[in-house]
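Tutorial handout. Part one gives the primary structure; part two gives the three-dimensional structure as tokens.
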Amino acid sequence: MDGAKLSYFAAGDYKNPTIVCLHGLAGSAYYSFAELSKKLSNHFHLILIDQPGHGKSASFKNEEDYLFSNLASWYEKVFDSILDKPFFILGHSWGADAALHYAKHYPIKIKGVILLDGGFTFPEFQEEMTFSIAYEGWNTYIDNAKYNDWEEILGEYSTFTKRWDSTIEQSVTSIFTKKEKYELIASKFTVLAIIKAFYEEPFTTTFPYIKSPLLLVHATEPKELHAAREKGISQLKKDIKDATIIKIKDTSHMVQWDKPDEVSSEIIKWVNKQ
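Part two.
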């Protein structure tokens, strides 16, 4: 796309409703959706995209290209080239924000928006998470995210879910590259540009412009984010007329890893009602 490599994969029957899936920061399509896509592809046509600078997709060259408004414009060209019908858009974490901004700018293309534990708390309702704390935190994290061996990676990533299995383990391979050590594919440039975008174009600026039905599926852990979740949900309900909120108990941010059956069931039920 625009001379740069874009990686995505499709699953399911094109005759079924299409759901475009956007993953989270420092992840990939396979990392976020490997298991969920198996369950959803029996019901829907899925387009699962490695977002710019992630997975096998090339990074943007300019920091401002990662601003959500510019990302939405870029996605409009992508979707025009691979889809010829309106679609649902699903995002996890950073992908949820990207989905909201696309739906804001191109509402005629969108049949519905699905947020997986994203686009409703960070950063606006996590008051303690100032820009400097988030920026420096991710800067340090990327510097330190270098691993001597695969067992070291699995030891860390297995703590991200209560339900580790071979599918999740395999999906983790899609976000690392081997240099002198194992490193994240997403570069510091890409990650920090996206952190800036969160603060320059916060998700609440999209809410009044969302005209399609919206489904939020959210986690319940950590408990420390309960107040932020409540504030985000309140604002979402205030601004978006047709919003459905589903809480998946005993789940953390990788909600689709923790309870893939429950998450997929809620998505299937909701889409089939639209």
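Part three, for discussion. The two ends are 31 Å apart (CA to CA). The mean pLDDT is 97.
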